Structures are given as structure tokens and as C-alpha cells.
UniProtKB/TrEMBL annotation:
Coiled coil: none
Polar residues biased stretches: 15-34
UniProt membrane topology term: Multi-pass membrane protein
Chief site of localization: membrane
Gene Ontology CC terms, in alphabetical order: membrane
All residue ranges annotated as the Major facilitator superfamily (MFS) profile domain in the record: 83-476
Phylogenetic classification of the source organism: Eukaryota, Fungi, Dikarya, Ascomycota, Pezizomycotina
Protein name: Major facilitator superfamily (MFS) profile domain-containing protein
Originating organism: Recurvomyces mirabilis
Length: 485
């Protein structure tokens, strides 16, 4: 049988693991039917019709079988799709830009407002922020699936602006915990989850590239905000430095509210109740475990690299704060380039490669630097070179920790269920982000202020992540090195 529904939906296609590259827009292999493909001719303007008629996305179910799923069309580009990517980019520049600046904030408040507290105690503020940024996705993802992004992004804007404008007034520990940890974490999650999930409604073959482009916003924010903070604090003070950052947030969150939108209809029979039964799928459970270890390790250098640079004695205080900007400069390229490569060589293949880069740089550069900085008669220039090289390489390799994980999760589910799968994954991952930074702070204390323990901890996290993602790939395509997955 063959149907052409208002020119935007093809007939049913066979369910398989390959993508039919003869159609443009492309179709998802997860949502193909079970019949032999029909021979249909397409007009040149079919791609534009496919995404302009958003209400006609899915074809009616075939009466031949109840297990058949209607085919989903992906524009893979066009003005509307790229405007969504730009809106997500703007939202992530604000939300993830704040997240990528926590190392600078941690180093500053530890020497000023919260100087009487230990590293581990201060770490709970920033770990709570990161935890809520991901944990709140448990409910935000299913709401996104059922209701769309509009109210979520609007609420996130309110929370994030309250966080940044009130931050300058904080003087006590509980002030920072409530304002930065709670308000900032919830606000980031409300923007981050819809921004990532909305891209999946417009891209399938090019999803990794599009997600990577949007995720570079967080790295660009992570370059601008630390440098701006370092420049403004001596001139205007902590309060006005954060307020000026808040005004930039306003300019970024306006396009995020206007441009982030969905295209596919709400999932039939969907609810906002989380469903952890999806962990019965071994591949998804392993992908979640791999992501857990990625994020467990990632936020340790993001939080403590500036502090280590300060105590190493290898660089000035000014440059120690700039090391986070260097890290994020590498990450800005690292969030886009792996996404581009993933669409060509395979998403899990690329993830395994970048995880290996994180592992080797942490154990081969940061760990030796922390050991040498404690030794006598070692030139500080050697430590300086290792730290800067590590910031660049780790920044690039770790960029995929944010941009590729949503795409890897999306390969294991239907697009209409993407928000639920992604949110469920990051609900588990969030507990790693909650404990990772305080654990690292406790390791520093147990090591007498030395940082070799946190460098080793970071490297071992990436060893575990690499094993998990490699196992998923082997489960899907075997040990063939040339298999694209």
C-alpha cells in the first residue's frame, strides 16, 4: 500500500537498522513499518513541504498489523530547523555558560566570602547546582514530550535570572546554596532539557552535528564569562560583575524563548509519569552507566582546575583564572567537531574515541603535573606546560560529554520518546554530578592539599565510561572495526 498524506508523509517503510538515504527529508529507522517499501516519486519541493506542514507528520497506522509504527519525516535542515538550533545555542550559552564558569566562582568564593569553609563543604554548593541541572530532567523531559517547550523555557528564564541577579548579594554559605545551587540548577535544567530535545524533532541523520553546534554555546559562554568576571571584579566588585552577566543572560534567553519549539505531535497516550522500566534494555542501561562516569569525571577538572592552578605556583593568579577559559575554548571546538564526525563515522565510535582522549590526557598530563608540582627542584615551566596542554586537550575531548551523549541516547529510542529516555538517563547521571565534586574535595583534603588524587579519580572515571560505551557498540554491531555505529 502507498499513501501520500497532504504531500508530507510517505508510505510505510521496512523496519531495519539502516537509514534510507534516498529520501530527503530522512526517516527514522526506529519508526519505520514492516512492509516492503513502496515506490514513490518525490517533487523537488518535498523537503520544504515536510517541515512546513507540522500537523501532518505521521501517516495513519496500517490496518495490516498493530505493531507497525507510522514513519517520521525529518527535514534535516531548512530555516525553521536552523532557527531552533540557534535558539538552543542561545539558551545553552546562558545555562551551560554558567555551568562552565563554576570553577572560577569556586576559586573566588573559597578565597573570599566562604574562606572559612573547607573545599569539600564549598563543593556541595556547586555539586547541588549540577545535580539539579540534570536531575530535574526526570519530570521536565516527559512534560516536554507531552506539552512542548514553551512554558518550560519561560520558567527556566525566570529561575536563571533570579540566580544571577541575586548572586551578587550572597555573603553566607546558605545564600550561595539557595541562590546558586537551587535557583541556578533548576533554571539551567528547565532550559537545557528542551533545548537539546527540540533539535531531535528536526534532525536525524545530522542530529549529532546540529546538537554539537548548539552545545558550543555553553563553551563560548564558558570562555566569555570567566574572562569577563576576572576583568570586572577588580573594577566593579563581585555584585556588579554578576549583574552584568545577568544582562547578557537576558539578551540570550529572549531568542531561546522565541525560537525553541517542537515539530512532531505529542506521543500518543503519553504521560508525565517517569518510567524506569526502560532500564530493562541492556544497551540503554549501559549507555546510562557510561554517561554517569563521563559526568562524574568531567566536573572535577571544571571545578578544581582553576584552584589547582592557583596552588601549583606555576602561574600567576590572573592566568590561573584564565585556565578555565582555555579549557572552554578547547571544548567549544570539541562540542561541534565530534558531532560532525559522529554523523560520518558513527556516534558511538566517536564517543569511544573522545573518551579515550579524556582518559589519556587526565592520566598522561594532569596526573604528572600534580605530582611534579609537589616535587622539589622541578621547573615550574614544566608544570605550566602540562597544565595548559591538559586544558586544551581535555577541553576538546570532553566537549563530546555534553554534545554526543544526547545523540547516543537518542539512537536507542523513538523520537517521540526521546525526552523521556534522555531525562531518565540524566536523572541517574545527576547523582554522579551531586557526589563527584564533594568527593574530589574530600580527596584533596585527604591528600594534604595535593591534587594527584583528583587527577587519578578523573582518569579512572573515563576508564569505566569507555568500557560501558564500547560494550554497547559491541552489542549492536559486534567487534568489526569498520562498522558505523
Amino acid at each position: 500500500m502507498s499513501r501520500l498524506f497532504k504531500g508530507s508523509t510517505p508510505g510505510l517503510l521496512p523496519r531495519n537498522n539502516s537509514i534510507d538515504r534516498t529520501l530527503n527529508p530522512t526517516t527514522s529507522p526506529q519508526t519505520s513499518g514492516s512492509e516492503k517499501p513502496c515506490s514513490l516519486s518525490r517533487s523537488p519541493d518535498f523537503a520544504s513541504q515536510a517541515y512546513q506542514e507540522a500537523e501532518d507528520i505521521e501517516a495513519p497506522r496500517s490496518p495490516l498489523g498493530s505493531n507497525e509504527k507510522p514513519e517520521v519525516i525529518y527535514p534535516e535542515g531548512g530555516l525553521q530547523a536552523w532557527l531552533v538550533v540557534f535558539g538552543s545555542f542561545a539558551g545553552m550559552t546562558a545555562g551551560f555558560g554558567l555551568m562552565n564558569t563554576i570553577g572560577v566562582y569556586q576559586a573566588y568564593v573559597a578565597e573570599n566570602q566562604l574562606s572559612e569553609y573547607s573545599e569539600s563543604t564549598i563543593g556541595w554548593i556547586f555539586s547541588l547546582y549540577v545535580f539539579l541541572s540534570f536531575f530535574c530532567g526526570l519530570q521536565i523531559g516527559p512534560i516536554f514530550d507531552a506539552k512542548g517547550p514553551r512554558m518550560l523555557v519561560a520558567a527556566g528564564t525566570v529561575f536563571l535570572l533570579l540566580c544571577i541577579f541575586l548572586l551578587g548579594l550572597c555573603t553566607k554559605y546558605w545564600h550561595f546554596m539557595v541562590v546558586f545551587g537551587v535557583l541556578g540548577g533548576i533554571g539551567t535544567s528547565l532550559i537545557f532539557t528542551p533545548a537539546v530535545s527540540a533539535i531531535g524533532h528536526f534532525f536525524f541523520e545530522k542530529r549529532a552535528n546540529a546538537t554539537g553546534l548548539a552545545a558550543t554555546g555553553g563553551s563560548i559562554g564558558g570562555i566569555i564569562f570567566p574572562l569577563m568576571f576576572q576583568s570586572l571584579v577588580p573594577k566593579l566588585g563581585f555584585a556588579w560583575a554578576t549583574r552584568i552577566q545577568g544582562f547578557i543572560f537576558i539578551a540570550l534567553l529572549i531568542p531561546a524563548n522565541l525560537l525553541i519549539k517542537t515539530r512532531l505531535p505529542p506521543r500518543s497516550g503519553g504521560s508525565v509519569v517517569p518510567d524506569f522500566t526502560i532500564f530493562r534494555q541492556p544497551a540503554f542501561a549501559l549507555a546510562t552507566a557510561g554517561t554517569y562516569f563521563l559526568e562524574w569525571g568531567l566536573f572535577v577538572p571544571i571545578t578544581y582546575l582553576a584552584s589547582y592552578s592557583l596552588v601549583s605556583g606555576a602561574m600567576t593568579q590572573t592566568f590561573a583564572f584564565q585556565i578555565i577559559a582555555i579549557f572552554n575554548a578547547g571544548s567549544s571546538l570539541g562540542r561541534w567537531a565530534p558531532g560532525y564526525m559522529a554523523d560520518k563515522f558513527g556516534r558511538y565510535n566517536t564517543m569511544i574515541g573522545t573518551t579515550l582522549g579524556c582518559l589519556t590526557s587526565s592520566l598522561g598530563l594532569w596526573l604528572p603535573a600534580t605530582v611534579l608540582s609537589e616535587a622539589e627542584h622541578v621547573p615550574k615551566s614544566a608544570v605550566y606546560g602540562l597544565i595548559v596542554t591538559y586544558a586544551v586537550i581535555m577541553g576538546f575531548a570532553s566537549g563530546s560529554n555534553i554534545s554526543l551523549t544526547p545523540v547516543c541516547v537518542g539512537m536507542l529510542c523513538d523520537t517521540q520518546e526521546y525526552g523521556r529516555y534522555y531525562a531518565t538517563c540524566y536523572t541517574i547521571v545527576s547523582f554522579g554530578t551531586l557526589t563527584g565534586v564533594p568527593i574530589a574535595g574530600a580527596i584533596i583534603q585527604a591528600s594534604g592539599g595535593a591534587y594527584w588524587g583528583v587527577a587519578l579519580f578523573t582518569g579512572l572515571c573515563y576508564v569505566c565510561a569507555g568500557v560501558a560505551f564500547t560494550t554497547v557498540r559491541v552489542m549492536k554491531v559486534g567487534w568489526k572495526l569498520n562498522a558505523k555505529y
